[in-house]
Amino acid sequence: MHESVLDAADRIKRLEIQGARNVAIAAIKAIEAGAKRSKSKEKQKFLEELTGAKTVLFASRETEPLMRNAIRHIVYAVETSDEVSVRELVDVVSRVSSSFLESLEKSKEKIAAVGSKRVSNGSKVLTHCHSSTVINMLRKAKDEGKSFEVVCTESRPVFQGRITAKEMLDAGIETTLIVDSAVRYFVNDVDLVVVGADAITSEGNVINKIGTSMVALAAKEARTPFYVVSELLKFDPLTIHGDYETIEERSPQEVWKDAPSGLTIRNPAFDVTRREFIHGIICEEGIISPHSISELVSRKHPWIFEVT
Ligand code: RUB
């Protein structure tokens, strides 16, 4: 296994790299770097290396279909390529990786263009955790000259909300940080809730940072619009075959380092927000109903259902 893959997997596991997009980007770059340094002489061996890298990266975080879709796409391109020379196959990996990264970048900009229209001048927007896609959309709204405030949750146990708060302040946006349990207290006071996504299921349910479903519940009760901001490729194709999205459970140490012995601590990283709580998914194709996700993904990315 090449060091670039092991290193990326380790940084992803430790949350040094966090958020679905950043995880996928790091994994793609690691696969490409590993492929470029491959010592394999035959296609079969090269494929075995790629498959090994795929296994290691998949295991680094379990609830990341964008990363899985990207890696499957790259491996599939090699498997189905007519090329037999390893040098040519490395080029295939580079080409597919670059085009995947480019399309991720384009989607991010399209999402920002669509989503920023929902941020009105003088409004207050609440977000949970740290989503680079949400941040980019809010920055765009700011760049368009809108004046608005952001309320962000701490996002216990590892406080990704602090990253959001710093990035929003850096963008010149008035920002308030609240504890996660204060969401109901503030949600009446905000005009819009926007969150990112780690996974979207075939039924249109969304998996995001633990606590997102509670934010959605509070938003629904307060009649505050709740939007998910996400690339279509966070769709998990396995859910259409009946598989459930696995929810990563992280170390209890993140919750309480020197907890008394005998205490059970549970630390799921994500939860599921059912589609009926979601006003819309702001994606690169526009604002869509969660119900239409499977149909749209099969139209825009039919390959997603082919590769396993
Ligand atoms: C991050 C999180 C983010 C999504 C989307 O959780 O839940 O909302 O990953 O992020 P963690 P992005 O910190 O555990 O990775 O929009 O950047 O893909």
Written account of the structure:
With 308 residues, the protein is α/β, with parallel strands linked by helices. The chain has 10 helices and 10 strands. It starts with a helix and ends in an 8-residue tail after the last helix. The model has no long low-confidence stretch (mean pLDDT 97). Bound molecules: ribulose-1,5-diphosphate (RUB). Ribulose-1,5-diphosphate is lined by residues 18-22, 129-133, 160, 196-198, 208-209, 269.
Number of helices: 10
What percent of residues adopt helix (DSSP H or I)?
A: 40-55%
Number of distinct beta strands: 10
Task: Please give the order of strands in the largest beta sheet.
Answer: 3-2-1-4-7-9-10
Poorly predicted runs are: none
Salient structural properties:
308 residues, 10 strands, 10 helices, binds ribulose-1,5-diphosphate, 7-stranded mixed beta sheet, single chain, alpha/beta
Topology overview:
Elements: H1 3-13, H2 20-36, H3 43-60, H4 65-79, H5 86-115, E1 124-127, H6 132-143, E2 149-153, H7 160-170, E3 174-178, H8 183-187, E4 192-195, E5 199-200, E6 206-209, H9 212-222, E7 226-229, E8 270-273, E9 280-283, E10 286-288, H10 293-300
Parallel strand pairs: 1-2, 1-4, 2-3, 4-7, 7-9
Antiparallel strand pairs: 5-6, 6-8, 9-10
Ribulose-1,5-diphosphate is lined by residues 18-22, 129-133, 160, 196-198, 208-209, 269.
Short description:
The chain is α/β, with parallel strands linked by helices and 308 residues long.
